[in-house]
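Before relying on records like the one below, remember that each one covers exactly one chain. Contacts with other chains, cofactors or solvent are not represented anywhere in the record.
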Amino acid sequence: MLLCTVVIASSMACSDATQPNPEPVGGWTLVGVDGSALPATIDVGAQIVGGELELSADGTYQRRTRALIFDVPFQDWSTGQWSVTGGRISFRRDDGLSESLGTWTANSIEIAGVRTLRYSPMVAAPTPTPTTTMPSQPMRPPRW
């Protein structure tokens, strides 16, 4: 009986759902630029207002940054390869224009470049709960 208890306890410890993912695979939301929360003014008339980073298990990424330049919406897209060594993460764009380095934890990715971009894990939207009850019989169209 004691052996069963030890085996069950150790298997539960190994499958603890609170353990962080050993790699940053998944969706990330841009939350800050150069230490400022979004929207972040980066130049006269230019603000970064949002962005997403999607890291796939096959080592590819897609990144989108949304900005307003003199109140005109602008989007920057890039794709490429990513890799992790310990707490360091690197990005190499498919177009060969740049390579970026950064750090990551279970709670954030920070990418250093011309600007320092900070991402947080995406949170799934909660399932809405109905506020009214539906009629038990199907609704009939009105008679005109």
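Residues 23-121 form a domain with the Lipocalin fold (CATH 2.40.128.280).
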